[in-house]
């Protein structure tokens, strides 16, 4: 009888220890508070504000600025609710390329263990671990040469916003080439520096490609490593062309691939119609 009593006591003690460990683990996790309804209601309010702006028939420049500010507000709302609203988490995941890496890390750390194991949670982790230049990073001043064969001088971009157009010149439509030329003409050169990165394996090939695509108005740079150089991996290139748009401190504010005129203007505030339209 004493043996059975000791065994039962030991089992009971073990169960208690397991339960305590479990409770201790859960105590470190924030309790789940579902804010799905609150998030969706606020989204409806933002949609109504967008419709109101549209109905005012404002000048394109002003409308674009207001829409962009509203888009930023909507994105930060999703960031705020991501840990407690599946819809908000999905919205943040879809817009990772518009959020600084550190902010995405904060969202990921706020997720509970179960959410981290979902596909959305894994996507977040993959983005955080990405090797490359993302929103919030400093645009690297990589070594390269100008079209004249001299080392590229990044100091010419100091104090300016930078639009780095990373290759893809042969993929852009003729109308898109004209679009960027008109943008350059409509922009103060002391405010915006447009840098054109070009694949080339030699100074002669660089000059040939610059002439073929009429890139003379831009600040041209190439590392002369051709298409197989290491710079693509360093920059995290995932599409040709890729655009990096920075503030005046060289901090990347937008990373985009391909080219859709309306989206490009919406996200950057750049347009041949008015030049720049960005508030820092």
Brief write-up:
This protein has 280 residues and is of the alpha/beta class. It has helices at 2-27, 36-55, 60-81, 86-94, 101-110, 113-116, 119-128, 174-185, 203-212, 231-235, 261-268; strands at 161-166, 192-197, 219-221, 242-246, 252-257.
CATH homologous superfamily annotation of the largest domain: Glutaredoxin
Query: Termini, distance in Å?
Result: 79 Å
Which band does the percent of strand residues land in?
A: 5-15%
Order of helices and strands: HHHHHHHEHEHEHEEH
Segments where pLDDT lies below 50 for 5+ residues? 1-7, 9-29
Spatial ordering of strands, largest sheet: 3-2-1-4-5
How many discrete structural domains?
2
Number of strands: 5
Average pLDDT taken over every residue = 86
Structure in words:
By secondary structure, this protein is an alpha/beta fold. The chain has two domains: 37-128, no CATH class; 154-268, Glutaredoxin (3-Layer(aba) Sandwich). It has helices at residues 2-27, 36-55, 60-81, 86-94, 101-110, 113-116, 119-128, 174-185, 203-212, 231-235, 261-268; strands spanning 161-166, 192-197, 219-221, 242-246, 252-257. The protein has a five-stranded mixed beta sheet with strand order 3-2-1-4-5, covered by helices on one side. The model is unreliable at 1-7 and 9-29 (pLDDT under 50).
């Amino acid at each position: 009888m004493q043996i059975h009593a000791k065994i039962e006591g030991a089992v009971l003690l073990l169960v208690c220890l397991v339960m305590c460990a479990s409770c201790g683990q859960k105590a470190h996790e924030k309790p789940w508070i579902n804010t799905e309804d609150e998030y969706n209601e606020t989204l409806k309010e933002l949609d109504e504000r967008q419709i109101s702006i549209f109905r005012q028939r404002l000048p394109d420049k002003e409308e674009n600025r207001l829409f962009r500010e509203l888009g930023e507000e909507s994105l930060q709302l999703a960031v705020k609710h991501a840990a407690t609203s599946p819809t908000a988490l999905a919205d943040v995941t879809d817009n990772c390329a518009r959020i600084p890496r550190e902010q995405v890390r904060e969202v990921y750390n706020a997720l509970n263990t179960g959410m981290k194991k979902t596909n959305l949670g894994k996507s977040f982790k993959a983005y955080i671990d990405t090797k490359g230049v993302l929103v919030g990073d400093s645009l690297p001043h990589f070594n390269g040469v100008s079209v004249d064969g001299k080392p590229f001088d990044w100091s010419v971009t100091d104090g300016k916003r930078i639009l780095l157009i990373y290759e893809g010149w042969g993929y852009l439509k003729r109308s898109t080439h004209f679009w960027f030329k008109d943008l350059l003409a409509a922009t103060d050169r002391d405010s915006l520096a447009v840098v054109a990165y070009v694949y080339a394996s030699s100074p002669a090939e660089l000059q040939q490609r610059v002439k073929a695509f009429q890139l003379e108005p831009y600040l041209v740079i190439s590392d002369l490593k051709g298409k197989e150089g290491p710079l693509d991996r360093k920059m995290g290139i995932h599409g040709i062309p890729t655009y990096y748009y920075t503030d005046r401190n060289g901090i990347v504010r937008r990373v985009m691939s391909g080219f859709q005129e309306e989206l490009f203007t919406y996200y950057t505030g750049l347009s041949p119609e008015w030049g720049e339209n960005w508030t820092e």
